[in-house]
Amino acid sequence: MANPDFESNARWRDLDKLLLRPGNLVNENFEPGPQLRSDLQEYARVLVVGAGGLGCELLKDFALSGFRNLEVIDMDRIEVTNLNRQFLFRLQDVGRPKAEVAAQRVMERVSGVNIVPHFCRIEDKEVEFYNDFNIIALGLDSIEARSYINAVACSFLEYDSEDNPIQETMKPMVDGGTEGFKGHARVIMPGVTPCFECTIWLFPPQVKFPLCTLAETPRTAAHCIEYAHLIKWDEVNSGKAFDADDPEHMQWIYSEATKRAELFGIPGVTYSLTQGVVKNIIPAIASTNAIISAACALEALKLATGCSKTLSNYLTYNGLEGLHTKVTEFFKDKDCLVCGPGVLLELDTSITLQKFIELVEEHPKLLLAKASVTHRGKNLYMQAPPVLEEMTRSNLNLPLYDLMDKTPKDVIHITGMVSKNDKKTSCLRKLRVVFKGVDVVTEMDTAGGA
Ligand SMILES: [Zn+2]
């Protein structure tokens, strides 16, 4: 048996090089010393959102970087096609929840780390669940899910009376994303750096090829394939639905695309490219996930310990042609609905919760449907589940002012649905509510009741 003290010192030798010594690039609040490592291990709580290609890497990287209190949330079960890159899973795990298997595998290999899995949708957790973590790490492939977690993390942010963000309420996030040979890693410090929503234009909706290009001036193999898929199929097989999982259908598209490519002298149409274009398959590459996840875990370590300044604030990696990496500093959108101080609503003290919900749903900046309302963690009205709806329904006829314990000015959280690119998605919005008349009286009182 190895000496446990020796083993533990040897195990953290590299981490200690970062945490025991001062340096020129450290944060202002950095205090080197053995206490820092034990604080990291004891107190830093990280949530990993997603247990797929990036999530598996993130959990492993966090566990090996000294974090010991980890949780992971993912709603998916393991599929055979995951096994080439989601390296914590084996053939016999197919069908089991990703979060549970990933947590179990990392705990088996890295002693001392504790990982709590959550096998559910991110929206199924109460918003307060997310407030329990020091850092939230995102290993997601969906824009909607990122947008939701971002809104949750930003909802904890509070502003002082001069509209400056309050440091203690900032919930830092590290976000990774990969697509084939490309990837990004970013640090989001709500109130300081741009949040996901401030730079939503970085993720434009997927553009389909214009039909006129497909019909008249194809230039690439993909154009020929989409011509066969989107135009020719309907012309020839009127009424018959195309099934991307039917090999005969795919073969038909392939041969039509080949004819088209020959006509225009375009090289490169193959059966596998046909599948890729029609099913919009972007190959997932294990090494890209590893690189991006390593960058994210390192940023989280810097955030937790201050051992170096974090990246500011958006790293892109491109291994498609040669290798390029670049860090870009993006700026906050000061009018952002998500990370800003929140839309300000001036209300009469007599307004009922029902009327308030109608006001919010019709507000031109908010435009959300099915609004549920919470105040300081208290559910004022919930649209779902039915049992909560029933419990909170009687509040609808009560004045909002009373439901907020006669607070003259405070933050209210609204969850609901918004339509984005013809898709309905969950959203969370922060509102600042001020009751008319009340605030003035309070100020006069504190000024001596003049
Ligand atoms: Zn923002």
TrEMBL record:
<keyword id="KW-0547">Nucleotide-binding</keyword>
<dbReference type="InterPro" id="IPR033127">
    <property type="entry name" value="UBQ-activ_enz_E1_Cys_AS"/>
</dbReference>
<dbReference type="InterPro" id="IPR045886">
    <property type="entry name" value="ThiF/MoeB/HesA"/>
</dbReference>
<dbReference type="InterPro" id="IPR000594">
    <property type="entry name" value="ThiF_NAD_FAD-bd"/>
</dbReference>
<comment type="pathway">
    <text>Protein modification; protein neddylation.</text>
</comment>
<keyword id="KW-0833">Ubl conjugation pathway</keyword>
<dbReference type="GO" id="GO:0045116">
    <property type="term" value="P:protein neddylation"/>
</dbReference>
<comment type="similarity">
    <text>Belongs to the ubiquitin-activating E1 family. UBA3 subfamily.</text>
</comment>
<dbReference type="GO" id="GO:0019781">
    <property type="term" value="F:NEDD8 activating enzyme activity"/>
</dbReference>
<dbReference type="InterPro" id="IPR030468">
    <property type="entry name" value="Uba3_N"/>
</dbReference>
<feature type="active site" description="Glycyl thioester intermediate">
    <location>
        <position position="212"/>
    </location>
</feature>
<dbReference type="GO" id="GO:0005634">
    <property type="term" value="C:nucleus"/>
</dbReference>
<protein>
    <recommendedName>
        <fullName>NEDD8-activating enzyme E1 catalytic subunit</fullName>
        <ecNumber>6.2.1.64</ecNumber>
    </recommendedName>
</protein>
<dbReference type="GO" id="GO:0005524">
    <property type="term" value="F:ATP binding"/>
</dbReference>
<keyword id="KW-0067">ATP-binding</keyword>
<dbReference type="Pfam" id="PF00899">
    <property type="entry name" value="ThiF"/>
</dbReference>
<feature type="domain" description="E2 binding">
    <location>
        <begin position="345"/>
        <end position="436"/>
    </location>
</feature>
<comment type="function">
    <text>Catalytic subunit of the dimeric E1 enzyme, which activates NEDD8.</text>
</comment>
<dbReference type="InterPro" id="IPR023318">
    <property type="entry name" value="Ub_act_enz_dom_a_sf"/>
</dbReference>
<dbReference type="InterPro" id="IPR014929">
    <property type="entry name" value="E2-binding"/>
</dbReference>
<dbReference type="GO" id="GO:0005737">
    <property type="term" value="C:cytoplasm"/>
</dbReference>
<dbReference type="InterPro" id="IPR035985">
    <property type="entry name" value="Ubiquitin-activating_enz"/>
</dbReference>
<dbReference type="Pfam" id="PF08825">
    <property type="entry name" value="E2_bind"/>
</dbReference>
<keyword id="KW-0436">Ligase</keyword>
